[in-house]
Design goal:
Structural class: alpha/beta
Number of helices: 11
Largest sheet: 10 strands, mixed
Distance between the termini: 28 Å
CATH topology of the largest domain: D-Maltodextrin-Binding Protein, domain 2
CATH architecture of the largest domain: 3-Layer(aba) Sandwich
CATH superfamily of the largest domain: Periplasmic binding protein-like II
Helix content: 25-40%
Number of strands: 10
Shape: globular
């Protein structure tokens, strides 16, 4: 399955965290701009450094923050590698001509469905769109058959989302490609009338769990992550997978790329190869991120619905218009 872009607007100040090194990497090390989950990347870094001895400095921030920063820095960027949660940030950097081609050996480790045709970046993990619902308020026969059904007046005031986040904007981007501008605009206008806005997917899930709202559109791993802990924010929650190539079955790909300006290209390429290889993908199976592994032959956490069973729609990242998503969501009063 190909994947979608979310809107990437506005460079903002980054909350920067450094892991495993000073502000600049040493000569034999690399700097990673990380917009993935901090714990997941920390595990990747520790595994890679243990195996190779290569030092890694990690700066943590958001997809849009870092992608815009990289574009602003241009060839002067100190970053060697960029990791994201969603693919739109990767495409912004790619279209700005700032990625080096990913080594062929690395691309060979990931199915073509999880990498752009250009070969300038590669999928490192995946996450599925779901409808999280309160099982004390909704039964299976009352669930929406399609994400598009949430535009129906019968859903007014009954569902939630976090429209300002890159996660949800990626979902809208998939909708735009699959159904076109007119249908997307109509759905967003109906959404503005029907939904309740929360900030962050975890907040949406908490609201669903507490009975404040009947359901919400989020990514799957928030539920599994909470269940693996105390379950206090998901004990009343179940996940509904739309499947059937529905826009609501969209699978978003996390990406990784090496900057063309990298001062340590060999080490940077080695890191990306390790993340997409057996060691890095095994961490997705055994770790606590509950994201999907995308490497060839790699297995995801057994608690997850298999990727092949999600029946996700095919979305081509190269044809998506992130600015159009921004414009449509703004016009609908969602941003």
């Amino acid at each position: 399955m190909k994947y979608a872009l979310s809107t990437l607007v506005g460079a903002t100040a980054l909350a920067i965290s450094l892991i495993g090194g000073p502000a600049m990497a040493e000569d034999d090390g690399i700097i990673v701009y990380n917009a993935q989950h901090e714990n997941l990347t920390k595990a990747w870094v520790e595994g890679f450094t243990k195996e190779t001895g290569i030092k890694v400095t990690v700066r943590n921030g958001g997809d849009s923050d870092f992608s815009n920063q990289i574009v602003a820095e241009g060839a002067a960027s100190p970053a060697d590698v960029f990791l994201t949660e969603n693919s739109p940030a990767m495409v912004l950097v790619e279209t700005s001509g700032l990625f080096a081609p990913v080594d062929a050996d690395t691309l060979a480790q990931v199915p073509q469905d999880y990498q752009p045709i250009s070969g300038k970046w590669v999928g490192i993990a995946a996450r599925s769109t779901v409808f999280a619902y309160n099982k004390t308020k909704l039964t299976a026969d009352q669930l929406p058959k399609s994400m598009l059904d949430l535009a129906d007046p019968s859903w007014k005031g009954r569902w939630a989302a976090s429209p300002s986040g890159a996660d949800f904007q990626a979902i809208v981007s998939a909708l735009l490609q699959l159904k076109g501008e007119a249908a997307t605009a109509d759905w967003l206008k109906a959404m503005r009338t029907n939904f309740i806005a929360y900030k962050g997917n975890s907040t949406v899930m908490k609201a669903v769990n507490a009975g404040e709202i009947e359901g919400g559109v989020i990514y799957h791993y928030y539920y599994f992550g909470d269940q693996a802990k105390t379950g206090e924010n998901s004990k009343n929650v179940e996940l509904h997978y739309f499947k059937n190539q529905d826009p609501g079955a969209f699978v978003s790909i996390s990406g990784g790329g090496v900057l063309a300006s990298s001062k340590h290209p060999k080490e940077a390429q080695a890191f990306l190869k390790w993340v997409t290889g057996k060691g890095g993908q095994e961490i997705l199976k055994t770790g606590d991120s509950f994201e999907y592994a995308v490497g060839k032959g790699a297995e995801s956490n057994p608690k997850l619905v298999p990727l092949a069973d999600l029946q996700a729609p095919k979305v081509d990242a190269t044809t998506l218009n992130s600015k159009k998503v921004t414009d449509l969501m703004t016009a609908a009063g969602l941003l």
